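User: Predict the full complex structure for these chains.
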Amino acid sequence: MVDYTYTLLIPLIPFVFFILIGITGHKMKPIVSGLIGTAGLGIAAILSYITAIRYFWTDHLAETGYKSIKAFEVTWLHLTDKLTINIGALIDPISVMMLIVITTVSLMVHIYSIGYMKGERGYHRFFAFLSLFSFSMLGLVLATNIFQMYIFWELVGVSSFLLIGFYYEKPSAVAASKKAFIVTRFADLGFLIGILILSFNTGTFDFQLLTSPTGPAITMPGGAAFMGMSLLTWSLIFIFMGGAGKSAMFPLHVWLPDAMEGPTPVSALIHAATMVVAGVYLVARLFPVYALGAPDALTVVAWVGGISSLFAAIIACTQTDIKRVLAYSTMSQIGYMMLALGVSGYGGENGLGFMASNFHLFTHAMFKALLFLGAGAIIHAVHSNDMKDMGGLRKYLPITHITFLIACITIAGIPPLAGFWSKDEIMVAAWHHNKILFSIEYLVAGLTAFYMFRLYFSIFWGKATHYHHTPHEAPYVMTIPLMVLAFGAVFAGFLPFHALVTSDGMPFESHLDYSIAIPSVLIALFGIGLATAMYLKSNGLPDKLAGIFGHTYKWAFHKFYMDEVYIFVTKKIIFRFISEPVAWFDRHIVDGFMNLIARTVQNASNLIKDLQSGRLQQYGYVFVTGALALVLIFVYLWN
Amino acid sequence: MTGSIPLQYFLIISTLMFFIGIYGFLTRKNLITMLMSIELILNSVNINFVAFNKYLYPQNLQGHFFTLIIIAIAAAEAAVAIAIIINIYRNFRSIDVDNVDELKF
Amino acid sequence: MNILSLFILIPLFTIIAILFTGNMKQTRIVSAVGMGIQLILAGILVYLYLAERNAGNTAAMLFYYDAVWFPTLNIHYTIGVDGISVAMIALTSIVVFAGIFASWMVDYLYREFFISLILLASGVFGFFISLDLFTMFLFYEVAVIPMYLLIGLWGSGPKEYSAMKLTLMLMAGSALLFVAILGIYFYSAPAGSHLTFNLLEIAKNHIPIEMQRFLFPFAFIGFGVLGALFPFHTWSPDGHASAPTAVSMLHAGVLMKLGGYGVFRVAIYLMPEAAHEQAWIFLILTGISVVYGAFGAVVQKDLKYINAYSSVSHCGLVLFAILMMNQTAMNGAVIQMISHGLMTALFFALSA
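Assistant: Here is the predicted structure of the three-chain assembly.
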């Protein structure tokens, strides 16, 4: 067994820096807190890379298949003998991969933020929260048991809440952070219920035990079936509900577009690359249980993923806020990953979908973070989020332009860039599993190419708007992260994922299936072509097309009225028909009853209070009468 | 022991005095008059004490002692009561008992 | 000197010291110092307790001390702590200490304010350390009475109404409780032997099941009123909303825990059989509290009301867990009490 205890430091270092910056940050010069935070993440990143190199290559684990290693574990809460909660670090292919993703993107975002957040109030607060987020996210991926994961799951929720609401003086940011927190928290309710069902029946929280093919979860007897599905299936569906909330899957996605109110680096880190893929990671973490124990739950995952990706892609075609387009694109891409997990089997070649999902998670983190950071650079230059205010920016922002273009090509799935390879694997996996899901993904691939290039052309080409002041390229501290991520976006596709990250730890052969790859490239090219025709030069084509689609366009533009549905359900149904009656009942019936008692006592007292008149002679009269009556009784009537 | 006046005469007198006192106490509105009624009641009791002592247990003196104590107490009581009445008069500008039913200050 | 007695003596000495203070500043500082010592003492107590337990002391109650103070009825001053009481004491000292600072700016009758506040605290501490039913009840009353003054004098909004409502409802609870305590007392020992108020001894001599059936609801509801058991919770929103900050903190953070603690220590501990039989009734009530409080909180407009209703919900959860009557749930209840205590106190401190 190889010693990985030091991996504990990877989450702990950002945590220490969070406390340090959080407590002493306001005394430092702003730039110092930024540099400290970045340095902390830098160390964590180096440690992660060392871990990855050791785990995948130098420690010769490949021969026997990549096993999960419990690097560290302590009992955190010893509640009873049956219920103990541990905390530790688990090293296995997906957690190592996630370490790389998180530390890389987080480091890039830290560096970028040094420039982007310059002059903002609460600079150190921003870096403290970033460190808190990094800590939580790293703790989440290293979790050895599902309860630890849940704890960190909530912590990332909190840090996401804090960062979305970073501009807390802006009402829309406050509303967005609240929305994000409540929606994901609501989904986490499902997660918790799932954990409780699963752990109650298996008697363990531990991932290694849960996911072992002979473990208590998979061999758990079907038990009391409820509505035609076993308890295990139900628990996994509930757990997936938590994942769907965090990963903004339909219909719990409503918070993600609004979350773009946060500072752009935050969107890049949390709402594109890391936190939103936590749901994917969760399903991947429990994948053996899903695949071997409850294939029905996996079907749910696949369909939710497929529907979300299509749904989001359609909306993305109509939005004009560049960050919202990217947000819907994120949702769509995560839909891909979910779908890939959903169509996957367990072990060897069957586990292609699992591998593809993680592969896509990896490449997506690179190019989506790049897109967001690029968008940040653009917003930094133009001071607007709306693509109507942009156009012809390629002359002003050369580096941003090139890196953004690379990211767009990657996400569209043009070979040989990273996005192509991962997306292709997903397509293959979907093709072998379900033709309907495959066609959805095929369509989405075309839509993706279309909306990304719509975005690209609207920003960098078209007529040059008159800007109040000439847009200027971002400083190097912002462009270098862009270049690093662009490098990742180009070359990440060549990583041998099929040999490293597989469902059972055993490598398998993966090869390009031309019958699927070529059509998907073609539809991507078609999407790009369409976008070029419509948006390269401004012409009437987009409006005409919008006119043709009419209602569909309007619906998509209003995000299929999902927000309104939520508002309707909460405000008009839950508030009006449950909460307000409850509040009314409480004030008027329960409390009214108490007041009634009080008033009754008061009235009764008022009635008898006249006996105490204060008139001396009345008392005397009563006294004498009483005494005489007593005399009468005792002397004459008693015998 | 003359024996000329029977015990009943004393008792009749004291009973009359007692009820006259009670009547006065309950019907008079003037605090001074009420005080006087109370004195009547006390004195009727005194007569009873002395009379019973004299006729039933002539060898004992408790009845006389009680009477003397009551007289002393009544004197003190009258002093206190008159002080109270003066205070009431100062506060209410009247010594009508019906005005004094506030039960608070 | 038993370390536990200090928890009552220090507040009393602090009160005496406050009487001699000349101005507002001195009063504050004396209160803060007194409660600071209390906090340190609580830390020491936690440490000593853990040390004793680690040393293998498995007695039910540690730091046990017993003295008779009213021999006629065999009322003792019996004190001792187990893990739950230690946790509660630590929680209380934190909240009280914070409460002193939260009321730093009280300037109307400041001396009386701090005296009442600390008297309330001493009642709470006394409640948590007593093992004698009567003494416990006495401390409970000591904690409730200053509440009336604190809300009625230093509160805001309809303070007289709220204070009166709170006090009356808690007193009604006490009345039920007193019935239960006397009932327990008269059946505390087999016929012919000496009656006792001592919790540990009563637990050894089983109370006859018929009496348990009769007394359990009294004890449960009596403490339940303080734990905001539906439908006896309506003092909570009004009381919390009207009370000054520190009092809301103490009330929601600590006093409501008295309910949960009392239910466990008296109702469940002494009358387990009846608890098993009647649990379902109270599970329904507490279940209603949990859901009802949460829904009620959603539509409130006033921050303090939101928090008050959420406290109803959370304390309902605590009572619910206690009624489960197993170790896991009890652990959960204690953790929930502590977390809710700190969380609500902080929330009230912030929303004022």
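DSSP finds 25 helices and two strands in chain A.
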